Amino acid sequence: xxxxxxxxxxxxxxxxxxxxxxxxxxxxxxxxxxxxxxxxxxxxxxxxxxxxxxxxxxxxxxxxxxxxxxxxxxxxxxxxxxxxxxxxxxxxxxxxxxxxxxxxxxxxxxxxxxxxxxxxxxxxxxxxxxxxxxxxxxxxxxxxxxxxxxxxxxxxxxxxxxxxxxx
Length: 167
Fold this sequence. Notes:
Blueprint: H1 9-16, H2 22-28, H3 37-45, H4 57-66, H5 73-77, H6 88-98, H7 107-131, H8 152-159
Helix pairs in contact: 4-7, 7-8
């Protein structure tokens, strides 16, 4: 799921197994108050498995503020391999949505953070699918990541030929 980090997978597993209370889980993953957990927690419990596929917000926050080059060595280790920025069409669409909300001098940093978000989700999903080829894997993300091309599906399909996309 988009709103859970891959670095928190052990906590996700414990929560799904009933070994952590909701409050302890939210504290462990540093769930912020900006998003209602009741909208996302039940989705994490749905099905045979639940996975965090995103990079920690501290990483994308650092990129948004100060650019990719500002990452610490520890943060760099969390980055997806072979990272690339989103394509020009995706960048234009991102600008259309975010342009008025982001200072112009920071736009490329925000777009880079968005691209890292997408690339990380594709990378983590690909890791799972390659190790579980017979598993049906459903990724729950916001529309911007999947609509009109350039986001998560394009990144995933780039390296996984058996990919089927439904929205």
